[in-house]
Amino acid sequence: MLFGAFLSLLLASLKSVRADYPAPGACSGGCFTHDPAVVKRADGKYFRFSTLDLIGIWTADNLAGPWTRSGSVIQGKSVINIDGNDVLWAPDVVYIRGMYYCFYSVSSSGSQHSAIGYAVSSTLESGSWSDQGAVVTSTSSSPYNAIDSNVVNGTGDNEWYIQWGSYWNNIYQARVSIDGKYVFRSGNEHQIAYEPSGNHKEEGSFIWKRGNTWYMFLSKGICCTYNPATDPIDQVYHIAVCKSDNPAGPYVDKNGVACTNGGGTTVLASHGNIYAPGGQGVFHDDAHGDVLYYHYLDKSVGVNYNQSKFGWNVITWVDGWPTI
Questions:
Q1: Rounded mean pLDDT of the chain?
Q2: 3-class SS at 11?
Q3: DSSP structural state of residue 40
Q4: 28-76, pLDDT tens digit by residue?
Q5: What average pLDDT does range 108-124 have in this prediction?
Q6: Which of 161, 169, 234, 290 is 20 to 30 Å from 41 at the Cα level?
């Protein structure tokens, strides 16, 4: 009897410190991705956008695929004239009043000379996008790096926010005005997340509005060159979340720790052969509900950048927090 009670307590304790995550949802066809963005068009067609190749586009009739490459958002190079404008990173695609906006990053590895640009389309299809130039820029004198952007709706139809940042002083946010194909940054710039330890390994903020609560998902930890034999498993890329009842913050995690002080409740981390999930976003799918999507590596295949795969899981909301 006493042994049974002790065993039950031990198992409960182990469960509390060990995260059991489901496998990523199925993917067939073209499954390479990094920092994906996923949109489901009104006709049911899925579009997936990715870092590299001037923001590559894949399409499918099912979230699980098969995914087919269909071109790129930008043709030739971005109109933003800085290094990296023929590659492009970290798309975020949002639909606002009949127009799709694809925000993208222009930079080179380790550089703070960066910019966030955007293109517009009414269809999402390759060849339909019109490049509009920069919204946010950074230099070596900036407190942030202008990459990894995301745009979210605030409390009214005309209230929009853009957040961005990677390493340095991490995540910043500002109001933006959006009028047709024009996007104007309109002030109120402030820090909304910061990892004070080490060299501030935090980036890829994505804010999801659910009811009257805003959830900020973050990629935290080592990216994007890995050695599983030596990298501490709890320090490689993983997905964390904070929330706020105001789109401009402050954001806190499940334990009440401020996101500006290293806070973040883990939503998904490495497990089994699934390694370093991150570059995440959320969308609502009428076929599945709220979906968390991301890239990850499969240790049984390899952990090189070009082996990054598209992953997704359905979100279950428990006591006001996302779980998978």
A1: 94
A2: helix
A3: E
A4: 999 999 999 999 999 999 999 999 999 999 999 999 999 999 999 999 9
A5: 97
A6: 161
Q: Tell me which residue has tokens 């590559």.
A: 56
What whole-number distance in Å separates Cα of residue 62 and Cα of residue 215? Answer: 26
- Alpha-carbon distances of 127 from 67, 70, 72, 123, rounded to whole Å: 18, 10, 8, 10
* Both structure tokens of 129: 């996008």
pLDDT at 183: 96
Helices (H) and strands (E) in the chain, counts: 1, 22
203 is catalytic: yes
Distance from C-alpha of 115 to C-alpha of 82, rounded to nearest angstrom: 8
Q: Is the pTM of this model over 0.85?
A: yes
Q: What is the largest CA-CA distance in the chain?
A: 73
Closest CA to 34 of 318, 312, 314, 309: 309
Answer yes or no: are the C-beta atoms of 138 and 145 closer than 8 Å.
yes
Span of 18-22, 203-207, 260-264, 278-282 with lowest mean pLDDT: 18-22
Q: Which of 92, 148, 203, 253 is catalytic?
A: 203
Q: Which listed residue (35, 92, 131, 231) is catalytic?
A: 35
pLDDT at 58: 98
Concerning whether 35 is annotated as a catalytic residue, the answer is: yes
